[in-house]
Amino acid sequence: MINRYTADRKIRSDDAYTPGNKAGKRPDRASIVYSQRCREAYKDVPLVLGGIEASLRRIAHYDYWQDKVRRSILLDSRADLLLYGNAERAVVEVAKRLDAGQSINQIRDVRGTAFVRKDTPEDWMEIDSTRIDRPGKVDKIINPYVNTRDLPQCEIEQSNAASGETVEMDAEDEVQILHIEPRVRLDRSKTVIRIPSFEKVSKDPVLYAHASRVLHLETNPGNARALVQLHGDQEVWLNPPPIPLTTEEMDAVFDLPYARVPHPAYGKEEIPAYKMIRFSVNIMRGCFGGCTFCSITEHEGRIIQNRSKTSILREIEVIRDKVPGFTGVISDLGGPTANMYRIACKTPEIESACRKPSCVFPGICPNLNTDHSALTQLYREARQLKGVKKILIASGLRYDLAVEDPEYVRELVTHHVGGYLKIAPEHTERGPLDKMMKPGIGSYDAFKKNV
Ligand code: SF4
């Protein structure tokens, strides 16, 4: 959809992901259309859906293009199984089980998968999502043309408070809120959380927000439980998220013999998006920022998965030696965030038990190890490689984290910035920053002083 339409929902005249930058080469809602075509062509072949679109649309979700809540993509695509997140493990497991003769409908216990089922199995304990998150109120949306600096703070708060009273829950949605966990400890591996149905979340923004919070609460692979959401008379079931790949596993994925050029079927025409990424290197996955507007945690998870330095340096050499047009400049050495490489909770046991949606909001958690030395060392060794003139860092920087390590900031601004560091305008305003669960502008001021 993003390839086809602008943010104003106007049809684009180009598409950076097609040869010759040509528009109109792919259908709307491509995952659904392609699934249907596959089904028509090969009726009896199991249909397994993956990728970012499937991943982010795995439960009932708000769809910007239609401005409404749509049901899980599983139902529209009629896929047998959906793999969400980075799904290497699940792909291999599902393929092996199919190869061993299991039917796709028997594969119900692979992490990072979602599917449709009729009922909750008898040996599972179901708990209502309102026992782990309290549905709240929705703040009134402030007129974007009003300068909130001119309004007294109490007026803004009053208008938000007033709006809270206008949002009512249906009588049938009113649930008793319990703040205590049952005394009997439930077996998490056999516990499923029931979130409000598609029909309810599509009518009620409070329940939508609640369901979304519960989804985010259940993203830590160390303690996440399965989720279930009713759509009509069908249950969309989500197994807990995948276990993060170890460094060795990440290296194995990234060291596969990729061609590093577009498929020959595309011919000689230029693909603008390829030009943008052909000299850039992905060093890690995941993000523990938990910003509310962002889909990374929902897709890649909150635990950082790192490649080894050796594997990253090797990839730079492969780019140098094999990618046509390389002039000595690596355009990015990054990931979802430029500077979360090798950063993690100090204690694995605490990390796997933690239920916080963010390690850096409202402030940096004292348990977070903010040492950037592995990244600094990687930059130093990367720019020493023969044939490499410049390494740029183009991924977004968490400056609240960066200031924790002045040596890293010095290294970055001295050697790896191609012009100016830029900050998006909404990232300077307290209101949006709070809503996005981003640190206040004070962190930026501290970063500027440091630089
Ligand atoms: S304890 Fe702190 S650093 Fe560790 S996972 Fe939780 S929020 Fe992150």
CATH architecture of the largest domain: 2-Layer Sandwich
Counted by DSSP, the helix tally is: 17
Q: What is the name of the CATH topology of the largest domain?
A: Transcription Regulator spoIIAA
Low-confidence stretches: 161-173
Q: Radius of gyration over alpha carbons?
A: 24 Å
Helical percentage: 25-40%
Could you tell me the number of beta strands?
Answer: 17
CATH top level of the largest domain is Alpha Beta
Strand order of the largest sheet: 1-4-5-9-8-7-6
Which class best fits the helix and strand makeup?
alpha/beta
Instruction: Quote the average pLDDT.
Output: 90
General description of the model:
- The chain is an alpha/beta fold.
- It has three domains: 153 residues, no CATH class; 37 residues, no CATH class; 204 residues, Transcription Regulator spoIIAA (2-Layer Sandwich).
- 33% of the residues lie in helices and 12% in strands.
- The strands form six sheets. A seven-stranded mixed sheet has the order 1-4-5-9-8-7-6.
- β2 and β3 form a beta hairpin.
- α13 runs parallel beside α15.
- The two termini are 39 Å apart.
- About 3% of the residues have low confidence.
- Bound molecules: iron/sulfur cluster.
- Iron/sulfur cluster (SF4) binds next to α12.
